[in-house]
Amino acid sequence: MSFRTTPSVDYVEDVSPGTGALAPRAWYATSDAQSLSLNGSWRFRLSATADAEDDSFAEEGYDAGDWAEVTVPGHWVLQGDGAFGSPIYTNHLYPFPVDPPHVPTENPTGDHVRVFDLPADWPADGGAVLRFDGVESCARVWLNGTELGEFKGSRLPHEFAVAELLKPAGNVLAVRVHQWSAGSYLEDQDQWWLPGIFRDVTLLHRPTGSVGDFFVHASYDHTTGEGTLRVDSDVDGRVSVPALDIDVATGEPVTVAVEPWSAETPKLYDGELVTAGERVPLRIGFRTVVLEDGLVKVNGRAILFKGVNRHEWHPEKGRALDLETMREDVLLMKRHNLNAVRTSHYPPQPAFLDLCDEYGLWVIDECDLETHGFTEQAWRDNPVDDDRWTPALLDRAARMVERDKNHPSIVFWSLGNEAGTGRGLTAMAEWIHGRDPERLVHYEGDWDCRDTDVYSRMYADHQEVERIGQNLDGGTLKRRELPFIQCEYGHAMGNGPGGIADYQQLFERYERLQGGFIWEWIDHGVTHPELGYAYGGDFGEELHDGNFVCDGLIFPDRTPSPGLVEYKKVIEPVRIDGDGADGTVRVTNAYDFGDLSHLRFEFSYQVDGFPTGAHTLAVPPLAPGESAEVKLPASAPDGDGAEVQWTVRALLAEDTPWAGEGHEVAWAQRTVASRAPLPAATGAGPTADGDRITLGPATFDARSGALRSIGGVDVTGLRLDVWRATTDNDEGASWQDDTRWGVLWRQLGLHRMRHRIEGVESDGDALVVRTRVAPAAREVGLRTVYRWTSDGTRVRLTVSVTPEGDWKVPLPRLGVRFGLPAEGTDSAAWYGSGGEAYPDTRAAARHLQWDASIEELQTPYVRPQENGARADVRWVELGGLRIDGAPEFWFSARRWTNEQLDAARHLTDLTPGDTVWVNLDHGQHGIGSQSCGPGPLPQYFLKAEPAEFSFVFSVAE
Ligand code: IPT
């Protein structure tokens, strides 16, 4: 007897886009036609393979009553407490053998069943459409036992005509979802693999004569101030815009005076498209996007993108976001001066684009396409260069463009991300250019700009960006005529990104550079019972990319990271220049469209970091690009030896939809008078008594010279420290061929420095401790002398460091660290920068007097690493001590050592001990962006060179 079995699920590995779905059309949230949300609890059965179960579950009468339940929209791997499998994170590697279009036999398959009744008032006539807004990665659908079809294209809508199959009650909707399909080869984005019905499922009534597809064309002529509206519609009807007195037939253009739409002035007109059977609300924004004089211009002006890449993410729900979470993202972006978002790397939930229209953000809408894993085989067999896949690519392009084409916020269509090059991409670009000539096409992988309207790159370093700005980068003739954007830069993984202020200076200096998009918006940490937030590998994945998935400007819970605060400052739309010495400052409007009339300017002096009362700075309502000398409203107070600074703040004069009156948009701070030099603190000499030396308020161990106490406060382990728990940007990415300092530091042994004591001696009225600090097995070292003096009440430490040997690397940090008893050390007060800052992340460092608990001094990077330094600290008080620095220093304090911080993988690995460890640093190495980009610029290196710095310790009052 012979037999043969083959799995009967050919459609899963079929490269074609699917069967049975309706042609794509414009998406809209509401109309006067009825709809029924099918979101909610669905019956769910998980199988290990695509063909484990037959399709009898789709039949009427099947009893799924004993199945589990999942919430739709949702991903099954994030539900069921692990009973339904786990998420997998890979950056670009396919988590299955690359054998297109085949996928593994082990193909988690979720059968979903939902039984529903039609509402009593559901009209009997007309049609009905079942809409899926997003299912990962391949779905087969049945209604009441009849198969509707199957589809791929996870983050794209699919609709099916279902009127004939509907019953008043007891409708059975069955959806079989396969985690892996041929479509997975096109969806190799850097994110968690998360199967499921993760966007809305809706039943739409389609009345007779209802709206089909429609295309709102709303352009703006900046020379006349007029807008032209034409709504093309498959079904004839009328278009009205009451505020503009417009009432025209579909297809008929009408030109009237309008206020234009821009990201800064997002003027939308409410209108309506009315056909015989349906009224669809429209929100119309008039704007014209062109490529002119080698620049992207909107409404006649070149724009500067201050953008971010946004993946959809929620730490519990994955990519199933609700409207409020999306709104939170948009509000956070607006409040941090961002004006643009790239929907990396797929069309977002449709409602997100409504929010971009409403609040004002330029959008690069990106297609659901990435084939990055083929880079491992030098792009051989890349689907975008294989005609068999082209229908699927064109289907994806069409589903994006048709769905989203009525959003004024979208200025670019992006073909996808990291898919190499090929004929399929060219076909997509041609189709998009033909269908929507009123927008531009973006794709980063096309360095020759064959298919695109902008030269786009990712992670180009400052030098290269400058060359591009100067038009010295060469390239094809077409490329040389195009503007440039960095579609990804400033990799925000862990502590950082560093160097973004330096990029922004280039973007503002060279016309051709039209800005960029930080990578990325949010850390994709997954809420985890033991680990806090999980990242790659925490679910036992056999292949993963660790915490590379946590590289956002906001933490998983959407708290802004210092990186976002820095970015807000770097891209602020008002510039305040000059030190005010001549009684004026120069204020420049850096908006592209708006004047400054929505802002009021507040001016104040600070004496030793204490504000002395606010004045109004009278700034004229400058037009975009204009600047003016503005008179300071008050003269500086006499500091009497204290430091005097002024601060100008540009605040919203009135409430806006995205922030309230008084919200700070921009600011500047300058020093007018410096603080007096620190006292020498001399006079009282050291005295030795047995194993103890006393110097003013301080006691020391006579043998080692180690500080024991100051004014009765116990101090342990005070010594030179050069190590920092390496940041993701210190470590760099494994593929980086540039120098990765974090790796070299560890190779050299800077995390295991030894301290040899050469002598403890008195020198006049000073106690001098001579040491040499060096790692085992190396000849390099740091000759370090601690010189202590006192005036009887204060004790001053001067540290002199002289490098010896051939230092080929900069230092991570240079300063002293010591421990204070945890009991009594709960918080710190200081005068210096308020938030975290490092040499190349200090644009937002504002100098005032601050206080914070030790907990608040930590920045909770998902993977623990160096964090929390405060810059330019003049003095700090903690644990009963006051420490003044000469010069200013970097301060950090934690309830664990830097070594413990370095070893931790998750925040939950860090537990407070009985000591608070304090670092007072003379220097810190820059942060850079090397976790996926260039390292720190040379001017931010902490070179191993002779250094001397002092601290004066006293008992806090
Ligand atoms: C780049 C990707 O486009 C993006 O999705 C993300 O993976 C980012 O890197 C790093 O977080 S690709 C990289 C090889 C430059």
TrEMBL record:
One Pfam family of this protein, by short name? Answer: Glyco_hydro_2_C
The family database entries (InterPro entries) matched by this protein are listed as: B-gal_small/dom_5 (IPR004199), Bact_Beta-galactosidase (IPR050347), Beta-gal/glucu_dom_sf (IPR036156), Gal_mutarotase_sf_dom (IPR011013), Galactose-bd-like_sf (IPR008979), GH (IPR017853), GH-type_carb-bd (IPR014718), Glyco_hydro_2 (IPR006101)
Q: Which GO terms of the molecular function aspect are on file? A: beta-galactosidase activity; carbohydrate binding
Write down any Gene Ontology CC term: beta-galactosidase complex
Keywords for the protein's UniProt record, in alphabetical order: Glycosidase, Hydrolase
One record GO biological process? lactose catabolic process
Q: What is its EC number?
A: 3.2.1.23
Which positions are tagged coiled coil? none
SMART domains cross-referenced by the UniProt entry? Bgal_small_N
**What is the catalytic activity of this protein?**
Hydrolysis of terminal non-reducing beta-D-galactose residues in beta-D-galactosides
Superkingdom of origin organism: Bacteria
Q: Which family does it belong to?
A: Belongs to the glycosyl hydrolase 2 family.
Its protein name is Beta-galactosidase
**Which species expresses this protein natively?**
Streptomyces caeruleatus
